[in-house]
Amino acid sequence: MPYIKTYIHFVWSTKNRVPFLDNKELRQKVWRHIKENGDKKGIYIDFVNGYSDHCHCLVSLGADQTIQKTMQLIKGESSFWINQSKLCLNKFEWQDEYFAVSVSESILDKVRNYIKNQEEHHSQHTFAEEYNEFITKYKFQKE
Fold first, then answer.
1. Domain boundaries, the chain
2. 33-42 pLDDT tens trace
3. What phi-psi label fits residue 74: left (phi over 0), alpha (psi between -120 and 50 degrees) or beta?
4. Which class for 37: exposed (0-12), middle (13-18), buried (19 or more C-beta within 10 A)?
5. What distance lies between CA 100 and its chain's CA centroid?
6. pTM of the model
């Protein structure tokens, strides 16, 4: 039986960065659902939070889980659930793209704290500013 401990910090936005998740109560409902759905699908979601136009998710990947498949399951099911539950006035969609970076076990608490404090963080920085900081910091190139 393999022992795998690989943490990935995922970030993705709503389609065209529309602030669909425009109130804290709605966001909490969506984050709770994402965590519960992950549990049902065998995806260990360590921490999830976000803001009106995006989501952060810290996931520990299992031996047979890929980044692509994990994102497909989380994003696809949650957008379906949001629409089915009529939580938004307009059709809800996540953007196709996402950000994913591995996280060292030594900084897990720092990443959890960062994800936890999204409300406060985004009172000072937009998602676009945050995303550009990530891209610059990690020097990502599109495939």
1. 6-138
2. 999 999 999 9
3. alpha
4. middle
5. 9
6. 0.85
Domain 6-138: which topology? Alpha-Beta Plaits (3.30.70)
Q: What is the pLDDT of residue 7?
A: 98
Which two tokens mark 109?
Answer: 């608490």
Best CA proximity match to 26, nearest among 99, 87, 102 = 87
Place of tokens 């989501």: 55
Q: 3-class secondary structure for the chain?
A: CCCCCEEEEEEEEEHHHCCCCCCHHHHHHHHHHHHHHHHHCCCEEEEEEEECCEEEEEEEECCCCCHHHHHHHHHHHHHHHHHHCCCCCCCCCECCCCEEEEECHHHHHHHHHHHHCHHHHCCCCCHHHHHHHHHHHHCCCCC
